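debug: dumping io for the single-chain case to check the tokenizer round-trip. Nothing else runs in this session.
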Amino acid sequence: MKIGDWTERFQGTASLPRNVRDRLLESARISHIKMGKVVFGPNKIPDNLMFLVEGTIRVSQTSDNGRDIVLYRVEAGESCVLTTACMLAEEAYNAEGMAETDVVAVVLPRLAFDRLVAEEAAFRSFVFAAYSRRLIDLLRVVDDVAFGRIDVRLAERLIVLAGESKEIVATHQQLASELGTAREVISRVLQDFSKRGLISQTRGRITLSDRPGLRVIADSA
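debug: decoded output
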């Protein structure tokens, strides 16, 4: 797949000086990742930084008791903050990244990343600005898990996952992982939503029957 000057596709890299963008173009390569493939996992030290051109990567973490929580998603036009953090600290991942769709990514090798961070102030500023934005998102996740009402969080997540569609293909366990809670909790809240006519359920599928009603709940925090 030819994507030309990929630095134009990312808000952060598009604003970099031309000489820095040229260095990125010289060093990076294109990678294709199939849906369902594990992109990175715990205890592996990253050896490159990825910029997503197409697709979505879900980043999640598993606790000692086996409960999963989705930390964030890397969408087209973004890079992975966890990879950035691990590369800067020279530490291994403590989470898993999985391709939710087929992914096309630009891969910048670690050696080129280290040189650019050390030698180019503009690239260094870009890296830390992106890192700071995503760190704020992660803090919101922590706040939601610790203090957020589960009905509010679930209503919001159902709306986001549905997008322009009315139907979501997801199990109760998958939704529990999205929100960092137990499957039984999700099942109880979904049953309540169903009784109120907000959704309907079949095995592995949820239909949003009353999106405005769900939005009222999502905005009630």
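debug: round-trip ok. The radius of gyration is 19 Å.
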